[in-house]
Q: What sequence folds into this?
């Protein structure tokens, strides 16, 4: 049973070039491929355990690596899906905006906080999760692909803040403009769909 690479209908985006998207999708494909190949390799190294003293270390490292590759795959699926089918505004009467307003006072308060999280130094992701136990939204920062993921929470919105997602188009100093353009390009109906499925 393999993880399958998903396809996305991404049209012209404000600020993010077609070349960047093309290269970025190749990176996503790499995460899918590596998640599959790690799962395939582990039983192979299990077989070497008796003869090869290093095999257990290789297995440990493969498991450590799996969290990086698997989350890299899933994070990018949420990110690219939310940039698919053209930009759409958030439904002003929808459940997501109600939930955001309930927790942060207003949509703009939430947006300001989320954008501030996205400017965290270093590579990673600004995330909006739905905590299924408490039935509430949570903002978070995830380092790399996997460090800081919130257990048993469902990803609703994912903003890639790795340099590969914006530096070619914006230069390092254009990070804030990339964040602005991400929200201009965002298809909120995809985010709302993630939220409605998260319950
Ligand atoms: Fe990425």
A:
């Amino acid at each position: 049973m393999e993880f399958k690479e998903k396809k996305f209908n991404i049209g012209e985006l404000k600020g993010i070039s077609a070349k960047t998207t093309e290269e970025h999708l190749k990176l996503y494909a790499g995460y899918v491929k590596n998640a599959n190949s790690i799962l395939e390799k582990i039983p192979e190294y299990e077989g070497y355990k008796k003869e090869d003293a290093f095999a257990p270390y290789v297995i440990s490292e493969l498991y450590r690596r799996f969290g990086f590759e698997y989350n890299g795959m899933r994070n990018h699926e949420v990110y690219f899906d939310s940039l698919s089918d053209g930009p759409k505004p958030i439904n002003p009467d929808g459940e997501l905006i109600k939930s955001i307003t309930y927790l942060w006072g207003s949509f703009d308060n939430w947006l300001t906080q989320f954008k501030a999280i996205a400017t965290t130094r270093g590579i990673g992701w600004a995330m909006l999760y739905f905590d299924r136990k408490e039935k509430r939204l949570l903002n978070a920062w995830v380092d790399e692909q996997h460090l800081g993921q919130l257990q048993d929470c469902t990803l609703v919105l994912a903003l890639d803040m790795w340099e590969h997602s914006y530096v070619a188009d914006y230069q390092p100093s254009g990070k804030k403009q990339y964040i602005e353009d991400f929200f201009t390009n965002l298809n909120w109906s995809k985010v709302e769909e993630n939220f409605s499925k998260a319950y």
About this structure: The chain has seven helices and three strands. The first strand starts at residue 124 and ends at 131. The two ends are 27 Å apart (CA to CA). The CA atoms of residues 48 and 54 lie 9 Å apart.
